[in-house]
Amino acid sequence: MQWALLLSRALMAAIFIYGGYGKAMAPAATMATMTKYFGAQLSGPAYAVTLLVEIGVGIAFLIGWKARWTALTLAIWCVATAFVAHYQPADRMQMIHFMKNLCMAGGFLQVMAMGAGRFSVDRR
């Protein structure tokens, strides 16, 4: 059972670490997309926060450091990005991403409620 908790954290963290790495490798393209949602003045700060959350919090969640807090942060992030970037009822693919984000938020809330398990930094 404890291995399943570790595996679930790895699977849940993977999308954030991978996505954050991709954004870090393409800052101009990422900030151009963010300009669409936030305007030119906020795309820089939004980019910095995105990297912090996706890479920093993603890694912290993966290793189980402050797992309840990182899980809550990622749950909030999932809901916020679902509404900001994916809530487009006329676009089926965006709505699938919207629902995926809400589903992931549910998983993070479960970790927030139950903890990271034995194989985590929090347990050391």
In brief, what are we looking at here?
The chain is mainly alpha-helical.
Describe the overall structure.
Helices cover 83% and strands 0% of the residues. It is mainly alpha-helical and 124 residues long. It has one domain (2-115). Helix 1 runs antiparallel to helix 3 (40-63) and helix 4 (67-86) packs antiparallel against helix 5. The model has no long low-confidence stretch (mean pLDDT 95).
Enumerate how many helices there are, as a single number: 5
Q: What proportion of the residues is helical, as a percent range?
A: over 70%
Report mean pLDDT, rounded to a whole number. 95
Radius of gyration: 15 Å
- Report the structural category: mainly alpha
List the helices and strands and how they pair.
Layout: H1 2-25, H2 27-38, H3 40-63, H4 67-86, H5 92-114
Q: Which labels suit this protein?
A:
124 residues; mainly alpha; 5 helices
